[in-house]
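Hi there,

I know you've been waiting on this one. I reran it after we fixed the sequence typo, so this is the corrected version. Both the input and the resulting structure follow.
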Amino acid sequence: MTESPRLNLMEYLGEVPDPRMARTQRHELLDILAIALCAVIGGADHWTEVVEFGQSKLAWFATFLKLPNGIPSHDTFARVFRLINTEALEKACQQWLGSLVGRVQGVVAIDGKSVRGSRDGKKHPLHIVSAWASQHGLLLGQVRTAEKIQRNYGDS
């Protein structure tokens, strides 16, 4: 019997190891990760905006998060994300997005960009390729590429 795919983001985020010492934990790691991810999807650019987002959506977050001490402070978000194993967090998010493959309806746009201002002397600028679920306004994935791929779509 095959196991059905997990679609719940919280299950994937729950696999990210907590880097904090147990005695210093006033907030659940899962709460911190979920609030931060939702806030960033909602347009937050700074930890203070993540806190404001969390506070404005507190009633909603309380329906599925523990929140033993409410919404963490911006200092707590910054401290946890400085310590977090970024590879484990990225893996959890990629696995969750992978579980959605074939379930996203509509157009998935693939786009490549060279990031302006990322050239450093002789180093090449940063090149990224993104997959965007247009109908849902959701970034499905983004990867750095070694170099820009030039395509000629004109008459040959």
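Quick highlight: The beta strands are 108-114, 127-133, 138-145.

Best,
R. S.
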